[in-house]
Prior knowledge:
- This protein is of the alpha/beta class.
- The protein folds into 3 domains: about 1-100, Rossmann fold (3-Layer(aba) Sandwich), CATH 3.40.50.11540; about 110-210, Ubiquitin-like (UB roll), CATH 3.10.20.600; about 215-300, NADH-ubiquinone oxidoreductase 51kDa subunit, iron-sulphur binding domain (de novo design (two linked rop proteins), Up-down Bundle), CATH 1.20.1440.230.
- Helices cover about 40% and strands about 15% of the residues.
- It has helices spanning about 1-10, 20-35, 70-75, 105-115, 120, 155-160, 215-230, 235-255, 260-275, 280-285, 285-295, and strands at about 10-15, 55-60, 130-140, 145-150, 170-175, 185, 205-210.
- A 5-stranded mixed sheet has the order 4-3-7-5-6, with helices on both faces. A two-stranded parallel ribbon has the order 1-2.
- It binds iron/sulfur cluster.
Amino acid sequence: MLLAAYAAGATHVMLYVHGEAELSAERLTRAVIDAESAGILGNRMLGRHVECRVELRRGSGGFVLGEETALLESIEGRRAQPRTRPPFPVESGLWGKPTVINNVETLAAVPSIFELGAERFAALGTPKAPGTKVFGLSGPIRRPGVVEMRNGVTLRQLLVEVGGGLMDDQTFKGALVGGPSGSVVPAALFDVPMEPRERVSPGTGGIVGIPAAASVVDVVKTLLGFNARESCGKCTPCREGAPRLLAMIDELRVAADRSATTKLLRDLADTIQLASLCGLGQAAPLALVRALADFPDEFEAPRSP
Length: 305
Ligand code: SF4
């Protein structure tokens, strides 16, 4: 973070930590105090005429705070709702000042890029996805946790070689890739290298292994329910559309005219994706749209209550 601040000429840095991440906040508070007493931070960094202050801010735990302008609103003391753009934060961000916002994964790569050089770091990944990426592995796998891998890694390498496969020798139906804004990738695509904007995109890097016995419909409903709850309410397509989409999944499974209901559902998904202000709303229908294409049978038969 200090290297990035130095490169940008910034003298004021804020660490914004999730309101529920107590351990992270504790450790970062200590790191800032240690850096100040070691002379790495403050008015004269390392005894030179370079100044940088670091301030720790706590969020209040909302998913929408991952959207950078909602985060700025929160720091300024307002309700966490995304701003319309332009202006972009690099032109007019926190309190109207030019603001560079990076997530911790990006900043954590900076020391490695300095150590290895940009070319060697980039060569760790693929031409479309240079460098490394951090993945969070979860679900009923043998070795869940957070790992840093070369970009272009496959789901099989992550979930089987690193994660140890599913517990109780279950087989995979697929994996939820990309967290709450992601989608379920079928096991048939487990050997495709993951690259942004390709068939299997790593998204945020959150990976949940899904066993063959699990219901993709349940996964999709859980994600839509989460996105509906976390909607900040600023724009109608996201606020009203996500709960409606959730209700329509059940309607689809008992519909007399399935093709008409499916068309309605796709139209609503398109509207939400096109007309929502921020990434939360734009990505909310993704899991459903992908699951309808990749797991159509799961939406067929009505299940017993
Ligand atoms: S898309 Fe959803 S979360 Fe984003 S601004 Fe609109 S209502 Fe808020």
